[in-house]
Amino acid sequence: MPHLPDHLLAGYRNFMNGRYLTESGRYRELAREGQAPETMIVACCDSRAAPEAIFDAGPGELFVLRNVGNLVPPYAPDGEFHSTSAALEFAVQSLKVKNIVVMGHGRCGGIRAALDPNAAPLSPGDFIGKWMSLIAPAAETVSSSTFMTAAERQTALERISIRYSIANLRTFPCVSILEGKGRLSLHGAWFDISTGELWVMNKETGDFERPVLE
């Protein structure tokens, strides 16, 4: 029995003979001097929406946090375990990132679960259900709309949840203070898996728009 699945070992072999070979100097520099990414991405765990691939990022360029539904909880210094808040604290306070991007995506399973009031827990702990309850008020409002199709409700909540997470980011003192000083910018984006299109949130209106690419 191999210690890793064969396809992972094959991928690692390709990495060593390809990307690492051409960027070995960059990796050695990062090992020696540490990381200094300017941008943090809060993205979903979904294997189809990898930020490093979408933004064609090299090693050390992005500090990526991934969780179910790309959610940011509100600031809650209650002594409990908060992995998302810990990553945010490290990115802002230690790495001193200049940008935080909350990136949602189409066909998100977590969002679909939030929209289904009859969804059965995957385990007795119902960790997903508890986590997605962060956007329960929005999910209830969207679910009650009979003027939208199921697909439209899904896309609507995917985008609304991004605005929710950005609002929650501002409940963290370290974020709100730095944003107020102009040293930190918050952004929203939504990626369509089926078409590869990236929609960017307009900071003034909250609408999602397709950027003009040169």
From TrEMBL:
Top-level taxon of origin: Bacteria
EC annotation from Swiss-Prot or TrEMBL: 4.2.1.1
Keyword terms of this UniProt record: Lyase, Metal-binding, Zinc
Cofactor list: Zn(2+)
Catalysed reaction equations from the record: hydrogencarbonate + H(+) = CO2 + H2O
Family statement drawn from the similarity comment of this UniProt entry: Belongs to the beta-class carbonic anhydrase family.
PANTHER family in UniProt: CARBONIC ANHYDRASE
Protein name per UniProt: Carbonic anhydrase
Lineage of source species: Bacteria, Pseudomonadati, Pseudomonadota, Alphaproteobacteria, Hyphomicrobiales
